[in-house]
Amino acid sequence: MHTESVERWVHDHTFGQDQRRSAEKRTLIVSVVTVLTMLVELGAGIAFGSMALLADGLHMGSHASALAISVFAYRYTRTHAMDARFNFGTGKVNSLAAFASATILALIALVMAWESVGRFLSPVAIQFDQALFVAALGLIVNGGSLAILGGHGSAIGKRGRDENHRVPHDHNFRSAYLHVAADALTSVLAILALLFGKYMGQRWLDPLMGLVGAALVFRWSLGMLRSSSRVLLDLQAPDDVRGAIQKAIESEGDNRVSDLHVWSVGPGIYAAEIGIVSSRPLDPDGYYSLLPGELGLVHVTFEIHLCAAHLREARR
After folding, report:
1. Coil, helix or strand for 203?
2. pLDDT tens digits, residue range 9-37?
3. Are residues 224 and 273 in the same domain?
4. Are 209 and 190 in contact (CB under 8 A)?
5. Tens digits of residue pLDDT in 109-137
6. How confident is the model at residue 152 (pLDDT cuts 50, 70, 90)?
């Protein structure tokens, strides 16, 4: 066999993961903004003796840590895309980082709930003007961060494109977006509660809004944990993807799909193992040409079997 005959079928497993994406740059910018705001709040809190500023700075620090995980994941995925130790490339680093980030988000929600219950049981004096300033500052920073990330919103829970590459279900980007959105949500709820407390005396709204925010953030984190764990555990691809593959294969001759495994190996890209039974099987190239190009299939293996009736005929 000629060497060039083998080389024709040899391919790498980068699947576009070695390319720098706009999501990486946006996440890095937001991460830097968050860290700088955290340092300003911590410095001001120490200088002015403000517990509110210190608390908000530490809270923002937890989100900064999660955003740092997202930035690291993008860089690691890109710089190790050619590493042969990864069977199907580094795409799953994206989901691993998202899982870790979602875990941090869930812990933040639990801490928020714990603090809110504590405020219900043991109310503390609220310095409304200072607290409103901190909440407003946080909202401005997070609003700006959401605007930076918002241009890439097509990656949040729906299909879209990032430059020349598909980026549906970019769990890493979505986790970064959720951290910023969670921070913005808590700022909005805090401002509402503080305004009602300052001008209408409804101080109980402050811990109540804390519980509401904690519940919403925890729900977001659970959704992220579910979707990222599906990828990490190699669960089957969505029904529409598998259905499209089976329909395409069985559209030709008497081909029947006997076994079908499709799993995600990165944002919007899949690997597949397809078992086919037929009396007149095609060669692998023929089957590959039947598969819809828009499904994001980057690594496909066919297992082809002659049907029993054809085998009996051949033995006669």
Report:
1. coil
2. 555 566 666 677 778 888 888 889 888 88
3. no
4. yes
5. 888 788 778 877 777 666 777 777 877 88
6. very low
If one counts the domains in the chain, the total is: 2
Residue range 233-277, pLDDT digits in tens: 888 888 999 999 999 999 888 899 999 999 988 888 899 999 999
Looking at residue 86, what DSSP letter applies? S
Domain boundary among 232, 255, 279: 232
Planar angle of CA 279, 284, 289, nearest 5 degrees = 105
For residues 214 and 294, membership in a common domain is answered with no
Question: How far is Cα 281 from Cα 292, in angstroms, rounded to an integer?
Answer: 19
Quote the crossing angle between the two packed helices 91-121 and 171-200, to the nearest 10°.
20
> Which amino acid appears at position 31 of this protein?
S
SS3 label, residue 291: coil
Q: List phi, psi (to 5°) of 279.
A: -85, -20
Are residue 33 and residue 147 in the same domain, yes or no?
Answer: yes
Token readout for 167 is 């980026």
> Please, which pLDDT band fits residue 162 given cuts at 50, 70 and 90?
very low
Could you give the CA distance from residue 232 to residue 171 in angstroms, rounded to a whole number?
11
Choose among 219, 206, 174, 158: nearest CA to 52.
206
Q: Is 247 found in the same domain as 216?
A: no
Q: What is the domain range of residue 205?
A: 22-232
Contact criterion met (CB below 8 Å) for 172 and 94: yes
Cβ–Cβ under 8 Å, residues 63 and 110: no
DSSP symbol at 293? G
Residues 6 or more apart in contact with residue 262 via CB below 8 angstroms: 236, 237, 241, 242, 245, 270, 271, 272, 297
11 in any annotated domain: no
